[in-house]
Amino acid sequence: MPRLTVKEIKQFLKQSNIDTQMLSNLERDDRKGVQMLVSKYKLNLAQNKKKQSAFNSRLQFEQIFWAQNQLVAGIDEVGRGPLAGPVVAAAVVLDDHFNLLDVHDSKQLSFKKRQTLVPQIKDQVLAYAFGVVSAEQIDELNIYQAAKLAMTQAYQNLDWDVQGLLIDAMELELTIDQTSLIKGDDRSISIGAASILAKDYRDRLMMEYDLIYPGYDFKNNAGYGTAKHLAGLETHGVTPIHRKTFAPVKKHLN
Prior knowledge:
12 helices; 5-stranded mixed β-sheet; Nucleotidyltransferase, domain 5
């Protein structure tokens, strides 16, 4: 039987499960191209095992509920720091079929990776929902209370019954069982998935606001106080979506 070409081996190694005997045979192949492919395959295998282990570790809080035949929602919010736009929260319910190893704190993921993960998360979770609290409400309540309200809304908007909540560094005024986790988006897959969906939702909203209120670069800064945003405030003044109680905006009032 003729041996496979390097191109054929490259395609072969894209399979998820490679026969150990076949891999052993390839390791003995004296072609440099084959050795490079085998090395890359083994490196990817080791990285995926490490990623799987980390993923399993970040499911420990969900598994407490699953072991009791219960479901839990992960909740996170984004947008506390910007000078403009709402604070947005997401709630996500998943089960033990969820297998997106790359789900993590949204701040640790590139824009491209988030764009890839968002439809995959929505497809795999049992349910997801959002809570949105406007800049006007933020000014009325303060940003901390507004974040709590957005999280509460996200939970209340879920169309799935859950027996508990996993929340990123927050406790809500609800009677349901809650687990508040410091850096929860880095410690829980549910919260991490919620952080990705919340950020995507808010980023898209700010891109829409960029069309309505040009001159502040909202599509790129998402309302944060970048140089272009501050220059926009200086030139164009305050918009209805600016948080008027935030110091850099307040000085441009009147």
